[in-house]
From TrEMBL:
<dbReference type="InterPro" id="IPR027443">
    <property type="entry name" value="IPNS-like_sf"/>
</dbReference>
<keyword id="KW-0479">Metal-binding</keyword>
<keyword id="KW-0560">Oxidoreductase</keyword>
<keyword id="KW-0408">Iron</keyword>
<dbReference type="InterPro" id="IPR026992">
    <property type="entry name" value="DIOX_N"/>
</dbReference>
<dbReference type="Pfam" id="PF14226">
    <property type="entry name" value="DIOX_N"/>
</dbReference>
<comment type="similarity">
    <text>Belongs to the iron/ascorbate-dependent oxidoreductase family.</text>
</comment>
<feature type="domain" description="Fe2OG dioxygenase">
    <location>
        <begin position="173"/>
        <end position="278"/>
    </location>
</feature>
<dbReference type="InterPro" id="IPR050231">
    <property type="entry name" value="Iron_ascorbate_oxido_reductase"/>
</dbReference>
<comment type="pathway">
    <text>Alkene biosynthesis; ethylene biosynthesis via 2-oxoglutarate.</text>
</comment>
<dbReference type="InterPro" id="IPR044861">
    <property type="entry name" value="IPNS-like_FE2OG_OXY"/>
</dbReference>
<dbReference type="Pfam" id="PF03171">
    <property type="entry name" value="2OG-FeII_Oxy"/>
</dbReference>
<keyword id="KW-0266">Ethylene biosynthesis</keyword>
<protein>
    <recommendedName>
        <fullName>2-oxoglutarate-dependent ethylene/succinate-forming enzyme</fullName>
        <ecNumber>1.13.12.19</ecNumber>
        <ecNumber>1.14.20.7</ecNumber>
    </recommendedName>
</protein>
<dbReference type="InterPro" id="IPR005123">
    <property type="entry name" value="Oxoglu/Fe-dep_dioxygenase_dom"/>
</dbReference>
């Protein structure tokens, strides 16, 4: 008989509405900050990314991953660390994990003007010939994620006692990455996870697609809890850069994507995380307001976002030291 894993408990992450921000920015900031302090995660509905744009993006994502393997591999950039274009199935491995992840993905970065001062650190995008409209769709989606991200960061700034526009210069022309993820159907005896336990590297992650079961967070007591957002809501989580900046006041919570219940194993899972990064030259330096006698500065030496990202990509096997 096959083992039927018992379903994990669901994380009681409150569903917030970004619509509430304009009426009462202080209350929204408190709710978002409270959810982050408790779980490292928040669930945000009414995030402002248009539903028809998201629907187009899902259609493009499915159409791209349905292309023959050799066509997709033509967009794999050898030695590129997966920064742009296609990364094949079973390439990425979570830090310290024993199995490679059961996923393939596509990365889109920011479009920079020719001669931009970040050109050396932020690779140009590559675009597939098909499906048609891919480039336009994802440039538009990237911009919509930027806007949602700015609104969330202003709430985070408020929560931290900073000016609401504190993050604006930090993230202007930032090195954010939009990841299109495909987890193909899994065999009954596949190793246990689609994506191994990990923390995100960036400031915050804005994730669409977590309605399809599998995403779990590791709670403070060591229990894995399922994340079950309402249809269309975004799952937002704190990454290591924000954890470091805030001296762990906002925790970057470990998460993973487990294989689904047997009846869903024949289905693909698609998701779209937007990894919101600061500009490469942003200095991650512990915020003084987060340092106290009980919480002494854990990071006396500041590091640029670019150097920090490089260190972390080496650890996950995407870049050579
Ligand atoms: O697919 C998901 O739901 C989460 C993906 C994720 O955690 C990641 O790519 O960092
Ligand atoms: Fe993640």
């Amino acid at each position: 008989m096959l083992d039927t894993p018992t379903a994990p408990a669901t994380a009681q992450v409150p569903a917030l509405s970004l619509n509430d921000q304009s009426a009462d920015p202080v209350a929204f900031a408190a709710a978002l900050g409270g959810s982050f302090e408790r779980f490292g995660f928040a669930v945000v509905a009414d995030h402002g990314v248009p539903a028809d744009l998201i629907a187009r993006a899902w259609a493009m994502t499915e159409a791209f991953f349905a292309l023959p393997e050799d066509m997709k591999r033509a967009y794999f950039v050898a030695g590129g660390g997966g920064a742009r274009g296609y990364t094949p199935f079973k390439t990425e491995i979570a830090k310290g994990a024993s199995h490679v992840d059961l996923k393939e993905f596509w990365h889109i970065g920011r479009e920079l003007a020719n001669g931009h001062r970040f050109e050396a650190q932020m690779s140009p995008n590559i675009w597939p010939d098909q499906p048609e409209g891919f480039r336009e769709t994802f440039i538009e989606l990237f911009a919509a994620f930027d806007t949602a991200g700015d609104r969330l960061l202003s709430a985070i700034a408020r929560h931290l006692g900073l000016a609401p526009d504190w993050f604006d210069p930090a993230v202007k022309d930032g090195n954010s990455v939009l990841r299109l993820l495909h987890y193909p159907p899994v065999a009954a005896d596949a190793p246990e996870v689609r994506a191994g336990a990990h923390e995100d590297i960036n400031l915050i992650t804005l994730l669409l697609g977590a309605e399809e079961a599998g995403l779990e967070l590791l709670d403070k007591n060591g229990e894995w809890l399922a994340i079950r957002p309402p249809e269309g809501a975004m799952v937002v989580n704190v990454g290591d850069m924000l954890q470091r900046l805030t001296n762990h006041v906002l925790p970057s919570t470990t998460h993973r994507v487990v294989n689904p219940a047997p009846e869903r194993r024949g289905h693909s899972r698609y998701s779209m995380p937007f990894f919101l990064h600061p500009a490469p030259d942003f200095l991650i330096e512990t915020l003084p307001s987060t340092i106290s006698a009980e919480n002494p500065n854990r990071y006396p030496t500041p590091i640029t976002a670019h150097d920090y990202l490089h260190e972390r990509l080496v650890e996950i096997g995407l870049v050579k030291a």
